[in-house]
Amino acid sequence: MIYSLSTSELIFYGLAAVLFVVSASFFARYVRKKMISQKEERLIGFITDHLLLKWIRELLIILCIGVVIAYLLFFFGSFSLFSGFIEHIVSFFHQIVTFIVGVLNRPLFNLGEQGISLRFLFFLIIAFTLLVIITGAFRRYLKKFVLKGLDLEIGVKESLSSIAGYIFLIVASLIVFDLFGIDLSMLAIIFGALSIGIGFGLQHIVNNFISGLILLVERPINVGDRIDLGDVQGEVLKVNARATLVRTNDNIVIYIPNAEFISNRVVNWSQNQKLIRFRVQVGVAYGTDIDLALKVMEEAGESVAEVLKDPKPVARFISFGESSLDLELRVWTIKMLHTRGRIISDLNIAIYKKFIEHDIAIPFPQRDIYIKSWPGNLNH
Questions:
Q1: How buried is 96 (Cβ within 10 angstroms: 0-12 exposed, 13-18 middle, 19+ buried)?
Q2: DSSP labels for 269-290?
Q3: Which residue among 109, 178, 192, 347 is buried most deeply as judged by most CB within 10 Å?
Q4: CA distance 203 to 209
Q5: Do the beta carbons of residue 358 and residue 294 sit within 8 Å?
Q6: Do the domains spanning 183-272 and 276-357 agree at the CATH topology level?
Q7: Hey, which bits of 32-140 come out as E strands?
Q8: Helix 118-141 to helix 154-179 angle, to the nearest 10 degrees?
Q9: What are the extents of the domains in the chain?
Q10: Distance (Å, rounded) from C-alpha 56 to C-alpha 129?
Q11: Residue 13 CA, distance from chain mean position
Q12: What gap in Å lies between CA 318 and CA 351, rounded to an integer?
C-alpha cells in the first residue's frame, strides 16, 4: 500500500528532506577534513578514529540516498504516477524487511530467563563497541585536560589514565548488562567458559594483560623512558593492555608483550632521573705524560655542547694495558639520553682532535717475537 500525501505535506517533507541532505553533506565534508587534518589513532583492535569517521561518512551517504528514494516514492504515489510499479517495489521491500525482522527476533538460546536473539546480540555488540570508544575518549580527556595541569611525570599520567579507563569500562559494562536485562549472576557461566578458554590457549593473553596491570601499578617503566630489553633498545611510547610500544633509534616501533618486562631483566636508563653518565675509554702509548692526557680528555669533554658543566667531565687512569695506558673519560648529560651513539661519537672526535693537537699517540697493538733458532741454509 502506498501512502498518499497532500500538497502541503509533500512540500513540508520535501523541505525536511532537502535540509537533511544538505546538513548531512556539510557534516560529511567536515568529517573528511577532520580525517585529513588529524593524526590517525587506534581505538580498539583494528578500529581507528579515521576508520570510524569513514564509516560515519558512508552511513550518512546511505541515509541521504534512502531519504531521497523514500520521498520520490511518496511523491509519485501521491500523484498516482507509476503506481503499479511503485506498489510492487514497496511490497517487495516490505516482504524483505518482514523476513529480516523475523530472523533477527527469533531466539537462538536462553541465558537464564533472557532469550538471546540476533537483534539482541547485534545491539549488545554495538553497545560495547560504543562503550570502548567512549572509554578511549574518556582516557584522552583525562590526559589532555584533567591530568595536564597536574605536576606529574608523563608515565604517572599514562598509568592513572589507563587505570581510570579500565575502572570506567568495568562499571559501564555492568550498567550495560543491567540495561539489557541480563542477570549478573549468569555471568558466572561466561567466566567459567572463559576459564576453560584460558586453559586451552588464552593463558598468554591473560598473562600479558595481568603483566600490563602490574606495569601500570608498579611503574618499572614509564612513557618516555629509555630501556634495554635483550637486543631491543629504545624509547617507551605506550603501555597497552597486551603489549608495550618501544621505538628504536631507527624509528622502528616494536610491540613487546608485557610479560617479557615482568619475567626478563630490563635496564631502565631514566627510571630515577634524566641525568645519565657516559663513559669513553681510550688508550695512549707508554711514555705519554699521563697528567697532560687526562687534562686534555677533560677539556675534550667540556667542548661538547651536550655535556654538563656540573657535574664536570672527569678523566681517570684505569689500568696498564698490554700495548697502552688505558684511560677513561666520564661525562654527564640530560639531553642525549635517546641518542647515545651521537654523544659517544662527538666525544671520540673531540678527544682525537685534542690528542693530535698535543702530539699524544694512540698505539697499535704491539708484540715482541723471540726467535729461538734460525735455519743455517736459507736455500733449503
A1: exposed
A2: TTSS-S-EEEEEEEEE-TT--H
A3: 347
A4: 10
A5: no
A6: no
A7: 42-44, 47-48, 107-111, 114-117
A8: 150
A9: 7-105, 183-272, 276-357
A10: 14
A11: 47
A12: 17
User: What does pTM read for this prediction?
Assistant: 0.52
Name residues whose C-beta falls within 8 Å of residue 71's C-beta, 6 or more positions apart in sequence: 13, 14, 17
What is the grid cell recorded at 236? 617507551
Dihedrals phi, psi of 176, to nearest 5 degrees: -65, -45
In this prediction, residue 1 has a pLDDT band, given cuts at 50, 70 and 90, of: very low
Q: How many CB atoms lie within 10 A of CB 370?
A: 4
Q: Do the Cβ atoms of 201 and 120 come closer than 8 Å? A: no
pLDDT in tens, 20-55: 888 888 887 877 777 777 776 665 555 676 777 777
Is CATH 3.90.180.10 the right assignment for the domain spanning 276-357?
no
The three-state DSSP-derived secondary structure of 178-234 is: HHCCCCHHHHHHHHHHHHHHHHHHHHHHHHHHHHHHHHHHHCCCCCCCEEEECCEEE
CATH number of 183-272: 2.30.30.60
Neighbours of 208 (CB within 10 A): 21
**How much is the CA Rg of the chain, to the nearest whole Å?**
36
| Separation of alpha carbons 167 and 160, rounded Å | 11
Q: Which amino acid is at 11?
A: I
Residues facing 234 on adjacent strands: 227
What's the chain's length in residues?
Answer: 380
